[in-house]
Amino acid sequence: MKIIRIDKADISGGLEKCGDHYQLIGPVREQDFYLFKPLAPGEIPDLGFTNTRMSAKGVVYPQSQQMFTYSLDTRRKDHHVMKVPADTHPPTAVMGIRPCDAAAFVQVRRNFDTPEYQDTYWLDACEKTVLVGLACDTPGPACFCTSAGGGPYSDAALDVLLVDNDDHYMARVITAKGVDFIARAGWTADISDTDAQPVIDARRKAAEERIESVVETDHLADAETLTLYNSPFWEDVAFACINCGTCTFLCPTCWCFDIQDETHGMSGQRIRIWDSCMFPLFTRHGTGHNPRGEKIQRVRQRFMHKLKYYIDKYESGIQCVGCGRCVRQCPVNIDIRRVCGLMNHAGKQSVTCAA
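^ that's the sequence the OP posted. Answer follows.
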């Protein structure tokens, strides 16, 4: 992997060259928050941020997405033909994505890319997207990425990793997509590993030491599912929840969606939109029966899915990257770190009893 020096003064020029090929997306400040948004010509991303309010999952998985259109007008030759829209996802480069948000794409892929089923909408967008990460030197107080299998300097899911070094960035080029992006930007100044690696290692160590939250997950895999499901703490955890869905919409690893048909006259379109397991309608059957009609059932489902079912199904850790968004933004202060601790402790008890 090559390491390239990118002077901060050259960021604008490089992105201008890339703009001919890529749709550029980066963090932009809006009032008190940062959001990932398309960059206007000549606009550069504001990389002086901790993390965005919303994750970058909407780049490849839009909140509302047209799947196909159709006409029921028999006077038309193409009536009753489902037409997938023309290429709606051009080659895209996301500048400044944090390692935790990039790691979420790896977790979500396990759901959208299976041996039996492939979500072509998600996969096509993902394959056309370059993730240019920004190492995290100042993790927030709610961040716990190292407990979720990642780290502030993790490059496992990135195409390029930028490391801030005063007046320039050290760019570690990781994949072929990253090589192409850097080449189109015209950034060519190599830095030797001998010069760059000690700096990167020192900054990584300092960033990891700033992480305040440590979440234990070691007993979740071995815990009995029914022991966790029937644990007495769920009533207390769910008591304050207002089923607003904020946690799921902010979460980079939540993937639930609904599919709807919208019609006007004889024409229609099928769209999918984000949905949430926290909403009462999410599991209501056409008969009116709802297997998770009570709030406690929905809250338990969310945490059991992320911290137990996902582990059991994929054997690859929790369905969480430790970004801390749900901790910071929950209006009633439900904290996944606390819930994980309760579940892990209950799991320890069940493992001990089983032994």
